[in-house]
Amino acid sequence: MEGPPPETGDCCAYLVRAAHKFYFTRIMPLIGAGISKDKAAYRYLPASVLNFPKPQDCTATMQKAGFADVRHRPLSLGICNLFTGMRAFPTASSPSSPAAGS
Hints:
Elements: H1 11-36, H2 39-50, H3 55-64, E1 68-75, E2 80-86
Antiparallel strand pairs: 1-2
Helix pairs in contact: 1-2
């Protein structure tokens, strides 16, 4: 949920992300705690989301794990990202396939 400051990037997207971050970290935990009576649960979610790896780090991790054509697409003006990648699975004739040695 980070982004460039308004003077170096898309001002509208920056303002939306800033407003969402304020709501997500300050308002939503109060509402959730008031409804469920479980304050910790509604502090944990924003903390875990804010600690999610940056898009470039997440795509690098996916590539290291063997995914190809790894991409991320920002959604909702950058509030969230959709990550996709293609994973090749061994075929029956592949030497690394368990079925190949049978």
